[in-house]
Design a protein that fits this description.
CATH topology of one domain: Jelly Rolls
Structural class: alpha+beta
Strand content: 25-35%
Pathway: Organosulfur biosynthesis; taurine biosynthesis; hypotaurine from L-cysteine: step 1/2
Cofactor: Fe cation
CATH architecture of one domain: Sandwich
InterPro entries: CDO_1 (IPR010300), RmlC-like_jellyroll (IPR014710), RmlC_Cupin_sf (IPR011051)
Order of helices and strands: HHHHHHEEEEEEEEEEEEEEEE
Catalytic activity: L-cysteine + O2 = 3-sulfino-L-alanine + H(+)
Largest sheet: 7 strands, mixed
Helix content: 25-40%
Number of strands: 16
Shape: globular
GO molecular function: cysteine dioxygenase activity; ferrous iron binding
Amino acid sequence: MVDRASLRCFLYFLTLHFNKVVVKKKGSEISKAMAYDEKDLVLERLKMSLSKTDTDLDQEKYLREATRHFYGIEKPLKYGPSVETLNDLIQALYAEFSTNYVNIEMVNHLMLSYKSNPKEWQKFAKFDRYKYTRNLVDTGNGKFNLMILCWGEGHGSTIHDHSDSHCFMKMLKGELREIRYAMPTTTTTGTAAEGNTSNTTSMESDLERHESLDEIGQRTMSLNDVAYINDNLGLHRVENTSHSDTAVSLHLYCPPFDSCSVFEKNSGQRVKCTMTFWSKHGQKVTYDK
């Protein structure tokens, strides 16, 4: 039997697909606008009918189910709202996450629409000499995490997953290379070894062994580019390949998570790790040792 979150997620993305098909079949701008009106009407009726019977639908479960259907968009939506400032982006995100039926395509649109302005994000951009840093900007009332990652020259992440969440990454400064890998198949399970990873702390268990990881693609991200990934699409590693320039990126995770799995490329070893922040809201975080 299909659970309610899965059914509602399928219906929602079916409606988005319906919208795109109608627009392709109609030529004029007026017809396109009418097509979007039709989509909005269908969505509104769908939400109204669902809310009458399923007011207890869990947003987190809905978002995790959506990772099975969403693959990201490359350009802003033609009829989506504009985002002028970082504060505008944050307020628009709060509005999108105010309902259980989050339009993840609109979230993608908002990240694409915002244009980097260093004056707005510099206070959150904290660098470390030896590793990249994760700097929390907003907790999204527990529904999403928005953060700025700062990459010194030559800094890079481990290969990692995203704990069954959506990950949007936008370039604010410089360039980053993203390398993607296919999600491996588990072969055996053991005990976690001691080890250090940037911005992560190893947990006591959950070491899994796989075959070596298969690279499935890579790209170079430049100013204002946005990448999207979830576990259905694979794993990735991000690195600043420059030895003379730093890089800054804006990340949105939903639902938020405080642990993920990191992988060793050649052996496929998997270790579950706790995520930490270098700073929160512009203030350095101190952790007890």
